[in-house]
Batch of 3 targets.
Target 1
Amino acid sequence: MKRAVISGMGVVTALGDGLDGLLEGLHAGQSAVQRMPGWEDYKGLRSLVGAPLQLKNEKAIPRRNRRSMGRMSIYAVQAAEQALADAAFDREQLSGGRVGCVIGSTMGGAQALTEAFEIMIPERDLSLLNSMKFFQCLSHTAAMNVSQYLGITGYVAATCAACVSSLQAIGLGLDLVRSGRQDAVLCGGSEELHPTVTATFDILFATSSGFNDNPRETPRPFDSRRDGLVCGEGCGLVLIEEYEHAMARGIRPWAEILGYDTNAGGTHVSQSNRDGLRICMANALRDADLKPENVDLISAHATGTLQGDAEEAGGIADLFGEDTPVSGLKGHLGHTLGASGAIELAATLGMMRDGVICATRNLHTPGKDCAGIRHVTDPLENHFQTVIKNGSAFGGINAALICRLMNH
Amino acid sequence: MNRSEIIEKTNAVFEESFEIAPEQLIPTAHVFNDLGLDSLDTVDLVVALQKKFTVSIRDDARIREIRTLNDIYDFIATIISETPNS
């Protein structure tokens, strides 16, 4: 089995430009959450907050390429450009069949999907539907558009398991590189904020609704006053490269991917459970040939929901006990859903490189049901080397990825 | 609707939907060779013209004869003249 490294990373987030902007915002304790104008027009929508980001420089992408892209695909192209530049990857290799692209999302382009239905359904008439609408909303729209834009001709796919989509994309990329089928795979997730997406969680009472007038106080991962998640948007991509391939190029990779697992709890369609997550993390440790004490940091999924955070804390406590620091980033960024795993992995590796993990924003008093683990309530300085990144999704699906920092 | 209004509205479609600079929008401009549209764009051009002029042209075979901006101006003028109460 071949070894795999992360040789480049790119992010588009609400906190700032690229990875540097994101890290600056995290260390400054900033929040991207705000009250969303117009959302009060939706009857029954209780959560009126979100973590939006503004499109920038989208016209740098030629119209012929951009016409098939919704926001999430534009984010993905911009993150892909960053990741390739970060990896100093030769673009001519992208079209040789040995480089792939796996980018996931929860439901494709929500904005385009809504627009398509708004045009087509009221009068049962598709005469005003343009040719690009469905390209913008396909479940693989980001993977398709990035591979078209960059001329990637290897393995192209989309993982669509809601909030673990990007971790599963990285897991699939890892398998492709380990098996030798690809030399490198651009992997991650992209997501766009839309009221239809927030509504999916809102009708399940999983969203935060008690902080509509104080949006920066929510979400509150693991906190005693947490009342649900807040949807965000953005993209995170990593370039996974075969170890020898990267070394031959003389680059300095970010990290080696040591282990991965994805599983399902098998008990509930919307709720995660501690046993499923514990087994997933244990399987990832076994894949990495590591023990729990070899992990320096846990980057939690920690969406700020009552049930999910308690189950994750329980699963972590069962496997790691209360010594390993547990960090969560959704208090800053909101829940970027299918993009969250890759965005938070990139941010965490960046913070590990800098030797400081930011405090979990809005975590002031850990809930009693989230006890038994070591929360990061103040910035934490250390020589972090090995991290496990968790994710959980509808369907009781879990994912866990273990990386070790290299040469930083 | 007079011809200058047709020209103005048609050119607006090219600026808004296809990001074509106004100075390129001369009557003899070839829609594919000069303005850079392709077969997928023509689907969207028809949709945009339908919206702009509130007409139904999607299944009109005369669309296939269009080559230049002037052809579009002529076609829209014909369609409007054929529309009752236009």
Target 2
Amino acid sequence: MHPSLINPAVVGYICAMGLALAYLVQRHELVHRLSVLATLAAWAVHTVALIVRAVELGAPPLGSLLDAISVAVWVIVLVEVMIEQRSGLRVLSAFVLPIVVLLSLKTTTSRPANLAPVLASAWIWIHIALAMVGFAAFVFNFVGAIMYLLQERQLKGKRPGAFYYRLPALETLDRLTFRTLALGFPFLTVGLLLGAIWARTAWGSALTFDPLAFFSLVAWIIYAGTLAGRAAAGWHGRRAAYFAIVGFAALVLTLGAGLFLPGRHGS
Amino acid sequence: MALFVAGVSHKNAPVALREQLAVEEDKLRELLGDIQRDGVLPEVVVLSTCNRVEVYGVADAPGEARAMAFRHLCRYRGLDFSAVESVLYTHLDAEAVRHAFRVAASLDSMMIGEPQILGQVKDAFALAQACETVGPQLHTLFSQAFGVAKRVRTETEIARHAVSVSFAAVELAKKIFAGLARRAVLLVGAGKMSELAAKHLVEQGAFPVYVTNRTWARAQDLARALSGTAVPWDEMDTALASVDIVVTSTGAPEPVVKAAAVARVMHGRRGRPLFFIDIAVPRDVEPGVDGLQDVYRYDIDDLKQVVDANLRERAREAQRAETLVEREVGKFLTRQGEVEVIPTIVSLRARLEEIRVSEVKRTLTRLPDATPETRAAIDALSTAMINKILHAPITKLRESSRAGASRSWREAVHELFGLGRRS
């Protein structure tokens, strides 16, 4: 990521987040429009920054975990805007943008220039790209689950508050968590498999301990369990939402492990 | 000429007085005709609903015009004008504009945000147009008011949240299900309220409708009325397994829908939510079902609570609507104000231009050797002078007009520049 461009993009995302939260509180048409504008502007700057970074590196900007997170953020924002435009789910940004901001704040720090030579291969790019697309899908899975639980609480509690008015129907939210799970899971699976295969070719063994790989396997098991429960046992609603949150917590640990613990993914 | 509105509404007059003043449509035609014949009110619209009777007018002497209009009104209804006069409110100019906008936008209604009032104002306006009592001022006022009302409806949520129990139930259903199309409804018991709720659900696409009742004939009657299917009373549990929304309103002293039965039914539904709207007192659905996943139960008190929350939400939105109206009033007055002086400005410009052109022509005929450059310079010089001279008076006219006091200025300009008589 290009450091001189990433900062304006992050500032843009922060502005957009502030406006999105303001819209959640005080539903003002203008505030929403400004929020969308800020998001699009920040995303455009972010796009340029990614291109500049790719040109600098002469490779996809996925070589370090921080670069990869930045790409994931880029995908998340794109998908967020698309969902909002298509479904009219205008409060989505108020839930997604805080995550975007947290992730992108981390990417403003400096990072290693590129991959270690031992890793350079087409497969590694696909491994990282798939894992990041999967991660983006699970961000929406998590957000859908949070919104589901909030709305369910309001409806069971019978005392309509702000969220009752702002959030869509339970069924819509449950469908969102299911679809994002069904979409994210294959990406995560193939991404993990490619990683394991690559580890074997690069280091001779697919199973040597790596903190990031370990937590991502935990997340994968949780998501696999949820998907199986949904498909076979009719899991849905609150239970599916709890699993989505636990799965996402595992993914956060995965990123944390990659960023802060020594290992093959570490910086 | 001043714009004014005078009348009575639910805010200042009891229904006993309002109902005496209310006029039906054909009487209103006569009334508008009578008012116009008197000649003090060149423009007039009369709005008569069960919550307000108001006269919107344009007149040189609003006080006199108001008294005249209401004297006619009282004569129609056999009332004593002096008794009415004391409760009448009157708004002039800016206040009248604000009032018209607030009424059309349903901000002055008894139930804020209720949708009927806009239609009533439109009807009153159309009637006055048909009777040819609408002139340019009221025409602008009312078309603006309709625009403001539309903006308030689309940009705020003043009219969005249900304020009746049956509509609140429909809204709740929409927060559980993604759309009500093809959702099956079961009516347990045959009360008036449950029938109303079922009708609202059907309007939103709910289908099919099942009706069950202890009295088979009653179930069949209601099923026919709602184009639904009657279900025998002891097959209620089977119906529960397949429907999405249940509306109960029996007169039974004990709950007729038991938590245990619902728990059994939920197993086979694979997470499809079940929504109970229990309008009966004593209640028909055991409160124990609240503990079951995917079951939502709202009894009459819960629904009232939702309605109360909706009312608070509407009040909050009404605040936003007031701000919007205030802005529109400001814009309207600015435009309106400048409209008044535009004819004066146009004729003033035309007059000076006429002088300039003729003087330039005269000068140039005396300078036959002038080069094209000289001619152009003379032309430019004269134009610049005119514009400089005009700048101050035009600014002053616009200002005075926005302040609502352009009349004497307009007259002065007409006199000083010999613009001929117009106002």
Target 3
Amino acid sequence: MLMTDDVRNGNGLVRPQSNDLLQFTPSMTCKNEIIVGVAEFYTVPAPQMLMCIGLGSCVGIAIYDVRAGVAGLAHAMLPRFDDGKDKQNAAKYADSVIYVMVDELIERGATKANLRAKIAGGAQMFQFISSDTLNIGLRNSDVAKETLKKERIPLVAEDVGGTKGRTVRFNPTDGSYSIQIGGEYSWI
Amino acid sequence: MVDNSGYKEIEIDALKEIGSIGGLHASTAIANLIKKDVMVEVSDCFIAKAETIPTSFGDREEIVAGVYLDAYSKGKGCMMMILPMKMAVKLSDYMTGRQHHEPWLFDEEDYSAIAEIGNICASSYLSAISKILDHVMLPSPPGVAVGMLGAILQYPASLVAEMSDYIVAIRTEFTIEDTRYPGFILYIPDPVSQREILEKLGVV
């Protein structure tokens, strides 16, 4: 932009290729999405997009503060920290990852009262299991909702259950959560 | 895997051997069923944290058909069969005598055909191992899912993560005559069976 304007105004003075242009590119294209792997979570400032590929029974918990422009996305695999074997990674469990993520968001400048949450995932991929005790997807999303309630973070929208895996993208700029199931896209 | 996390080279070889024995029995069973050649690769043995399962076995966004079964012995292990879509449709065609065409749509009949193939595979795999271990091993009724590989593998991953930190996954790849991309059988033994296997093979 800057370059073409200068040329059009007849300055003849083409700006040297400074960082001016370069620093616009990432935020304008939003191409660089951070992919949140299983049992990981990331918190980022606004233009950065977050993404979870292939959410099956795992649940993708997005917590964000639009005013402060920070957001976090977690990919939790199991419901409860207390029931789990591995105590080293809090990001593995739907309840503990919320506590850790909220702390980190506040460190990044979010205000607790402005935090909102959206969750997706928790599908039951395999059809044969009838009892709820084995339905890890349902347990994951239930525990996530329960913990959000306990932390007094309003759950704005959810897309949980079903039998299909999801790929989700979270945009911290406006808090939109795009969900792709198969070839179909939806936003919550 | 570089990080063997406490497993000796010889123990890993023994677990691979189990995969080969089971995989060969399973492939013979499929070959008899569909009257086609089934080729089996040498088994791999993965030792890793449970959360790495969904990303360890190929492109996690690829759409595949998966069959899941519990492997009951003294403990409860996991048994999975993952088939690329085209191979799943072909297998179902050979079994039911139908003929699928271009869009490769997967319907109810294909689901139950694939469930049956998974069941036969797992049963023969486990009965081969049970002969080594000298006690009964049985698969549970199968469950079928079609979806992203990563999403499907999350199910065994979270089941295993509830039981133990590190998992041992034995993978046996196989191809049938006219498909290029291999499907694979994944056996994740529970710690009790694992120890028993290693003891019976005399490597502990």
